[in-house]
Amino acid sequence: MVSWPIFFLLGVAAGVARAAGTPYKGAYIGELSTLEHGVTGKVYAVDNVTVYIENFSYDGEAPDAYFFAGNKSPQPSSRGFIIPDERGRNDVLGPYRNKNIVLRFPVTKKGQRSLNDVKWISVWCRQFAIDFGHVTVPPGLVKPAPQVATGLHSDKPALAASSVTVVDTDTIKVNDFTFDATVPDAIFVLGSGDAQSSGSQVLDEKGSLEPLKKYTQRSLVLSVPREVRGQPIQYFGVWSPTKGMISSVTFDTKGLLPPSLRSLRK
Question: Closest Cα partner for 192 from 162, 215, 218, 224?
């Protein structure tokens, strides 16, 4: 187990306090209008191709209803496309009652559909061309997106990575990671603050708190520490209690990250 300096422990405690509160769900698009069949729900952009509907309800009684989206008209119409349901299917919608669901835009022969392609999202009955409830996508909506930083580098000790990506609020990817393990107490760290100081320890790809072993061009998937989830991420690096920060990358703290799908599906 690593022995932490007191300022590190205080920083962790403060991070836990800041992380408490309303769960992050992405960029708020709006609330579905209730027009027919009890449609309700709040809609969020998880990223440019994924939406989250919180507390979605629909009575399931229409014969040909789907999640539908389009941009050929300012309001819902038959000129649109089906968004697959939370199982990825184009089935007629059944009943929902205050259910949290994640929808991903379809891939067509022309490529991936996205929020850039739509002005509205609707629960739409194709047979009778009726809008049961919809939300309008605000112009200029900023969609959450992963943040990518150029890689880590150090000559002594030998350390390198081609890139570091904060995928979402829970996940970090480190590509082509190499480390010679000549600094025996080095660990991954992440946090919001001075990149030359320590931060919250990031467990390795096996979920271990032990110091880093030798790596040769490994691609690693790591978990964002709980105490900094939901906070702006400023840096990720390899840090040593004896040597300090060996190498780090920084991120735009104003950037909007996608929420973790795992957290939305709880």
Answer: 224
User: What are the distances in angstroms from CA 61 to CA 37, 95, 132, 135?
Assistant: 7, 7, 11, 21
Could you tell me if residue 129 is left (phi over 0), alpha (psi between -120 and 50 degrees) or otherwise beta?
Answer: left
Q: Which residues lie across from 86 on neighbouring strands? A: none
CA 170 – CA 111 distance, rounded (Å) = 28
Angstrom distance (rounded) from CA 215 to CA 181: 8
Q: What share of the chain is helix, strand, coil (3-state, %, to 5)?
A: 10, 40, 50
- Point out which residues pair with 82 in neighbouring strands: 68
Question: What is the block-wise mean pLDDT of the chain (266 residues), using blocks of 10 residues?
Answer: 37 35 89 96 97 97 96 92 96 97 93 93 97 96 96 96 96 98 97 64 96 98 88 92 95 92 80
Q: Which phi and psi angles does 231 have, rounded to 5°?
A: -105, 155
Query: Contact, 220 vs 204, CB < 8 A?
Result: yes
The residue behind tokens 């735009």 is 252
pTM of the shown model: 0.85
What are the b/e assignments for 45-76, b being 16+ CB within 10 Å?
A: bbbbbbbbbbebbbbeebeebbbbbbeeeeeb
CB count, 10 Å around CB of 177?
24
